[in-house]
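User: New here, please read:
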Amino acid sequence: MTMPLDEMRRDLEAEQAALEARVAPLPPAVWETPTPSEGWAVRDQITHLAFFDAVATLAIADADGFARELASAMADFVGYEARYLARGRAMAPPALLGWWRGARRGLLDAARALDPKSRVPWYGPAMSPLSFLGARLMETWSHGHDVVDALGLARAETDRVRHIVFIGVRTRAHSYAVRGRPAPSAPVRVELTLPSGAAWAEGDVAAADRIRGSAVDFCRVVTHRRHVDDTRLSVVGPAAREWMLIAQAFAGPLAPGRTPGQFPIGRRSS
């Protein structure tokens, strides 16, 4: 992806601001609403973003400090998650929003100093700055999706989802590796329409296996916010179908996705 880092940073900032605009006016009781992520309320989604935006700042600014953070997570991930969630659950919504705002500000400030040719350490493989900030945007979009799903809020999608599409396509092999399976060899052509109506395409134009449809639906599948059968994606061929059933665009261990029929908003054609 050829894009200036400052453009990526601005898109991340805009995605964060869009989510804050949705949650800031919510009454305190609504912050306790369960979301589709089992055991997580709305407040937990924002806590997750606040915590990992702060850790992302550490990864940029203090590699040794991040290495210690990573070691803590790897030693006891269940306890690690429980501790940061407990921190957020002890806060009133205004304080939690303040935590997230501060973490976001720190991340965006740190990102200004990134060398485009550097590598940023993370919980999975180290990433280029563009990929790193794109992953933070993906996290914001994904956890924001859980919030709007839980509350039935309107969601105005933008072409910022192109960053998630890019990651989703690039992590096809990762989706297999996280399951201990070899990367597939069959090419898959991806042809998507962004919210603006612009086209996005990648892959061998002669490939028999194809995925076509909404870029937003593709993002929902690769981030585990929808099962492919609950989208309007056209998925043609066994390699394309298999990929969409196991896609996981984010780092970390194998995670369960949504089940078919959980969000029956469309149908899959093939």
